[in-house]
Protein 1
Amino acid sequence: MIRKGVTESFGAAVSCLSPSHLTDEVIRRSKRMILDTLGVGLLGTSTPVFNTVLQYSQNQQALKNSKVWARPGLSVPPQYAAFVNGVAVHSMDFDDTWHPATHPSGAVLPAILALAETLPVKPSGLELLLAFNVGIEVQGRLLRFSKEAYNIPKRFHPPAVVGVMGSAAATAKLLGLPLAQSVAALAIACSSAGAPMANAATQTKPLHMGNAARGGLEASELALLGLEGNTQILDLESGFGAFYPDYTPCTLAKVTPTSHYRWVLEDQNIAQKRFPAHLGMHWVADAAKEARAKFLDKYPDADISQIKKITLRVPSSRYVDCPLPVTEHQARHSFQFNCCSALLDGDVNVESFSKSQMNRRPLQQMLLKVNLENPKDNHSSFETMYCEISVETTQGEKFTARCDTFYGHWRKPLSHEDLVKKFRANALTVLTPDVVEDIIYTVDNLDRNHDCSMLWSYMHFNKHHMMHKDEHRCSVSV
């Protein structure tokens, strides 16, 4: 068959890629992504936004249902399971980040787990890994067709654009759709893409991830039923090019059963966060912690809240310039808040965004001392940005620090031990220790598992719900 264009080459890759094309490095990196995504998703099931979208999704009914994470006995139609679990992943902005900028895993993993649960023949772990990587690959390729995509986004939230395409590709792969239907799935998904950045730092932002997971799954299921779309959706300026003014697509390499395939994930690693906030905050936190250490090294007994002036030199990005955040979502997108939290506490963590920590007087007073500067050489790109901090005391002394690459960035990835430690900390908020260890073992051996159904079964547990059930049984027996 003679290739007609970009869209057809993508459809061919989706339908032709097989487990034999996966490399050891892609499998290793994607298993890290899956474990991290499951952990932040479990933690996210305790958030108000998750509970709100779950309440909405429970109104839907279907013959086939999929499990909701951390809600024993509760299932909803698969597209809504993808939706609510996707929201959970991004509810705290704790999920992974790629370059060019997007959150790749949260749009794909909830969709393929929800779909896999409904399939008559459950996929193997290797088949699940393949579908996941196809979804990640499509996102990475599409992002590389635009120079604008390499910068911190200004107009729309990338997971809502490339994420829905990744979800469609991944679920099309899991359904075994042929070339024509894979193209249709991408075309249908493109009409569900897009979300404005104005909803960043609000409860609506996590819905972008849930909508991407759901929209891609729905697109593949509609394609399976014969629905069609524009077969050149990725070639046209009026197609996927509508999202990027500098969109310059090109065809993917032809995939054959014996050919070597070079995955984007092999060339571009993933950033995994140490605390739940916008990625740019991690440069700020590391620089602030270093400045704090220098200050306390000289004045061990000093009150750090008595600092006179703080200067932050960061890239210009309006939606993460929030001088006086009121909500936790604003705080997760505030250079100023994360700087002051790190200066006061020597760390930023999950608890930093609680009401009690946000409203404490020393932090509120310190926020008023922060000045932002945007040096011309500090570009709005997660690849090249830096953070410099200057802390001035009432005595006129200055303590400075600079972070070019934070720990967890793709240039400086978390160690395996620290990634597992992060997963345990997140998952233990809702699961028992034995279930947590079972998930770690299952993900670690995913490529050798002939049936991955235990994975979503483990995600269905919740120690708090089980405790309530036991208490109820005791009260009834009494």
Protein 2
Amino acid sequence: MDLPAADVVLYSVLGVILLENIFDIYITYRQIQVYKTALKVPKELKDCMSDETFQKARLYGLDRANFGVFCAIIKDVILMCIELYTGFIAVQWDWAIDLAKLVHLNSENEIIVSCLFAFVTSVIGTFKDLPFKIYSTFVLEEKHGFNKQTGGFFAWDQVKGFLVTQVLMVPIISATVWIVKNGGDQFFIWLWLFTGITSLVLLTIYPIFIAPLFDKYTPLEDGPLRKSIEDLAATLKFPLTKLYVVEGSKRSSHSNAYFYGLWNSKRIVLFDTLLLNKGKPDDSELKEEDKGKGCTNEEVLAVLGHELGHWKCGHVTKNIIIAQVHLLLLFVVFGYCFSYGPFYEAVGFKSGTRPIVVGLLVVFTYVMAPYNAIVNFAMTTLSRYYEYQADEFAHGLGFSKQLGQSLIKLNLDNLGFPVYDWLYSACNHSHPTLLQRLDRLKQLDVEGKETKKEK
């Protein structure tokens, strides 16, 4: 006897979820075996990485990998499959309708119910993720010395994140539902244009108005480092308008640096944990374990040379274009698929009930899952290529030695493990491994010397 179309869709989706997670768990298991068997510092790092640091990094990586497998099994396999099989998405839609009635809103208006549905799913998702976040922050990260958050800071962070998400979601969901309902047969083009404009707006306003809600940003004080950065930006004609230090040490001791801004208004942000002794001239205020951590001014400049390489090579612009093409394809598929009844019946809706936001969820998350997996792998591969290009750019600026030193320091400070299974790394790492980047810098040094000899 043939299965109903809705059952075929449901079992296909469940099958894809299981296959994806089995593969992810398999490659993580391969990396777990590396953590268990790679017991000696690689010869390339023997002069700069102690056995004690290597073992700490190994155990940190092992704990994170085991926790990742646990999360995948509980959240992405068991809970997700139960929710789909029992039609929990439809239950949440019914709760949104009930909530609309409770607060005396029009429960027949799909835009209103869609916004409330997003609110309901956010509340449930927040409480579902909370135990895992708490364990990750206050047990795993705390155990390995990275967590700097208090319970109150963490709780307020979650509340702010939830509120900001709701404020952003309401206009976006409202506009999305309105466009689909009123955009005609080619609504997906209007939806794509709206999404593209919205993403550019968010890219612009997030670092200016939203990020400061979560972390403290202060201008980098005048001094040799600021002047060096401004001189480098001027040499490269990088339109630097602001230079900030973000107090990331209140959240974690991990380090980073990035730039943001569209067109001719760029801003550079340095994590205080990136700077030597958090940029403080007097280390007496620091805890003993924080003293001596971070990069020298020359090494920070090398890191920024790498980041500016991304700008000079147009990586941000290229990624935006790729993302927009990807979105257009997703919306085209959605335009042809969203009215297919079995998609909705598969997740628990009665025949004839087809909420637009649920259609987006089903098509983007489940129907397009195999395609998304391929695109994610391709983008991960492309990202590693971009990283090599940015390293080469920094090398061309004369920062080869300093960049190598900064990569090693950041790896040591962040307890990055230098040894990886090739398949795990290929699927998970947007950056080449430390050893791969150091090896490439050495190759560039050799090629540079050979080129000079030929001249």
Protein 3
Amino acid sequence: MDQSSITPNTSNQQLVINGDNDSATALLHEKQSRRRITLSDVTFREYMTIGILCFVNLINYMDRFTLAGVLDEVKADFKIGDDKAGLLQTVFVIAYMVFAPIFGYLGDRYSRRLIMAFGVALWSITTFAGSYIYTYAGFAVFRGMVGIGEASYSTIAPTIISDLFVDNVRSKMLAFFYFAIPVGSGFGYIVGSVVGGAAGNWRWGLRVTPILGAVAVALILWVMENPERGQAEESRMKPTSYTEDLRSLVKNPSFMLSTLAFTCVAFVTGALAWWGPQFIFLGLTLQPKVNITQESVSYKFGLVGMAAGALGVPLGSALAQRLRVRMPGCDPVICAMALLASAPLVYLALAAVEHAGGLSYFLVFLGMLTCNLTWSIVADIVLYVVIPPRRSTAEAFQILISHMFGDAGSPYLVGVISESLKRASSPTESPSLRVQFRSLQYALFVTCFVEVIGGIFFLLTSLYIVKDKQKVDRAITEAEVQSAEPSHSNAPEEDIGGE
């Protein structure tokens, strides 16, 4: 593809006249030379800010998957099947993705501290209140409200990291931040199963994270640093209109292709995270002389997920940092190889459950490990192929697309396929345990094909990634040159937004 046909990451207005190109190039080289910072240069308050963001991200995902750890009890309490059980997660994700663009727009223009504090308070209150709702429809409504609150935090937190750090330090901090996702998810299974089991009521598992959420709100309001947008890159770019923001993102090939690839990741992780514990439980019950409970399976599944995330997320970041020196466009290639390796591992894990539980847990670990390699790398890609005043919108747009076509529908889709297969196998009687297991197994096989598709999208991203990153670096630098030499500009300063 002719690279000249790709819309550059600069404003539709010319940022600087051609005579300023030498100045912009010199300034770009100077700024890049100043970016050779290490973790020893990070201040205590910046470490505190990262710690707070990671803490909130951890309890965010704890809250999201606490319900999955007690799904069997939830189904029994509300007297629902796999389809309606999957719909609970779908309702949450739909609300999450629909409100993400709203918070993305606000996050690029207003106080990110207040927006995040509001969001965390909202999902904490609605999670706690929802635990006292005893009708399925009412409980589903409250799960949707939880999604609204979580959307505010997830769209904005990564942009704060991008405004505090650059280059490899940013990559390390993003790895730390996204490390909290699989670990928090694992804690969600554990908290849901352990607390619910101890109390004899699954609803008590939902009442743990709201307490931690209250602490998080206080930390966000009074401790967390709130940097200027583009501070780390010394950017002086101004926000542009929302229409121009969206037009730019759609024309950005690296952003769009990596978003489609991450949509496949979201589809797979959403389906496996929601149905994994129950599927393993069904498979193990088919083995002779096995005495297990749903709580014990959720607990082990949570530990496996935490271990896979604890290794996978930082490993992916470390690989990217190491290979970038020799291969600048390595990020999407690493993600592609990770998904293509994960697909057969997930298939083998799904096939091994009824025969060898230990082997299945090990294969689940490997499948999760390879999939988790992508998390921090994808976040890094979004931040370095999009200019600073547009990053919250980019995060929100990616959340909208990846959840709309990913985990918003995958738990429900798997549940619908499973229920359809059960009815086809046992049209006139209640399905046996083996029929329930086999139906859910066949439904989950869909995830393996989706991972392969995701790997292909990441490979396509690698064709554009270097050029798009260079365009962002140059756009930031040209805007700074224009700000320093206003008499040379063809456009007023308020028109400078960058694309």
Protein 4
Amino acid sequence: MEVCYQLPVLPLDRPVPQHVLSRRGAISFSSSSSLFGAPDPRQLSQRRGAISYDSSDQTALYIRMLGDVRVRSQVGFEPERRGSHPYVCIDFRTLHTPLESGSTSSDSAPERRVHRLLSFQRYLHSSRLLRGIPQQIPLHLLDEDYTGQARCMLGKVGTWNFDIFLFDKLTNGNGLITLTSHLLNQYGLVELFQLDMVKLWRFLVMVQEDYHSDNPYHNAVHAADVTQAMYCYMQEPKLAKSLTSYDILLGLLAAATHDLDHPGVNQPFLIKTDHYLASLYRNTSVLESHHWKSAVSLLRETGLFSHLPPEDSLSLERDLGSLILATDISRQNEYLSRFRLHLDQDNLCLSKAGHRHFLLQMGLKCADICNPCRPWALSKQWSEKVTQEFFQQGDVEKKHKLLVSPLCDREINTVGNIQIGFMTYVAEPLFAEWARFSDTRLSQTMLGHMGLNKASWSGLQQEQSSVSEEAEPSKASTSAEDAAARRGASAAATAGGTSSKELPQGNRKS
């Protein structure tokens, strides 16, 4: 028998026992534990993904929903986490490890997972830095203060200047779980669709944990940001009075899972490294297909919609995939042209399910790339994070002698020029059409922020260019001084003497 408890309370001053296995937020107590008596050999099974296998069978297959089949060679071998499959000659870990040094982390994965789910109070209490140190402030007050601020922010979740970075800190890294569950309850979807709260919470925990926290950009914070933006769009008057409860449920789930298990590299990288996902999806919408199938896998694994008729749950999975696949940036012009044609002909009828679904697709596309439309303080952080992820991919490509992907070479690209180009050719055309559709204060605010942000990046680019131009004469002067010094030293050496003047070491900083 295998019994699962959600968010258990574990002794904080002891290591996690061997019979306690962590699975993305749910603690599974093995039947071998004395707590549950003697194990039944016929029931000794452990779950990996959506497939169970007999732990006594050393040749059992580890099967993922996406078709990845691997042989389990020996009992006790822990398979890699979802998505951490090595490339041909390339390991995912190289993406987030400095090229000069390897990873030296000594913390175990189970401990990290348990700590992420502890409250802020327990996290501080369990910190090694605080052990043996007298408590100056009652920790429960600090905990209530943080959760109180998070609740206060949720009261303003529909505002466009919502700071998702602060919210994620206040929730101790559980921003995606907290935000999504709040919105589902706010809309009354939990009661309406009769969702089991244990299954729902388990699903959200697994979704958050399947985002790679070491990705600078494509992580759970980005998913929470997109979910919050999607909520803002669904609150727009035209959509708010037309969307059904099913549409809203679909939109929130798609936003929360749209980048699930993102590896931190783009589709061309997967194709040119012959990654198994590229082969599986025939080099077409590779990442988006993987995100969708990963989301479906978690839905089935948790049984969140198992109480619905099979045809309804299958229909929901297909519609979820349709939304997630729409975020493929390579199909941007296809969706934008269709959207523009609808607006030109003024034939969008929100009483039709197909038209509402199309608007959800466009809303999710906008939410996915809305960072340039946020206030500068937030937009700048996102710009730096996505550029960092680009450059990490470029570093790996250089290391393995691969052709460096566009925008991924840190030697020839900057944050500013990447963002200016993205706004000009991708974001501005999309949000201009969205403003034609919604024509609200929010749509105008987004266009205003994007214009200001673009001007700010242009100003920073000009400043950097000016500094570079000023540095050129300085470099030339320094080179002349170096040459003169070298000639003086050479003359002194020829005369048999020594020069008391030290040779300049490199160029002076401007």
